[in-house]
Design a protein that fits this description.
The chain is an alpha+beta fold and 94 residues long. The chain contains 3 helices and 5 strands.
């Protein structure tokens, strides 16, 4: 499902105009980016948690040559599924 399909599905389910849903999603994106920039954790209960984490520097290997390479420390984003997403995923047969 891409963004346009998501906007359409939410608009239909919530019985609101697609432009409103699109504006809400744009606002959500902006707030998530700002919160991550500030180092804050964003939790939507039952759905997901998004937080900035730090990955320390480490030594890796170039898979083509096998040569050791230094990978610098970096900030990353961690997304954790909430209970409703986990339940939905586990209910689908493998």
């Amino acid at each position: 499902m891409n963004k346009a399909e998501l906007v359409s599905a939410i608009a239909k389910r919530a019985d609101v105009p697609a432009s409103t849903v699109d504006s809400v999603l744009a606002g959500l994106q902006e707030e998530l980016v700002e919160a991550i920039t500030r180092g804050e954790k964003v939790a939507v209960s039952g759905l997901l948690t998004v937080e900035r984490t730090q990955r320390s520097a480490r030594t890796g290997r170039n898979p083509q040559t096998g040569e050791s390479i230094d990978i610098p420390a970096a900030n990353t984003v961690k997304v954790t599924a909430g209970s409703n997403l986990k339940k939905a995923a586990s209910s689908v047969p493998v």
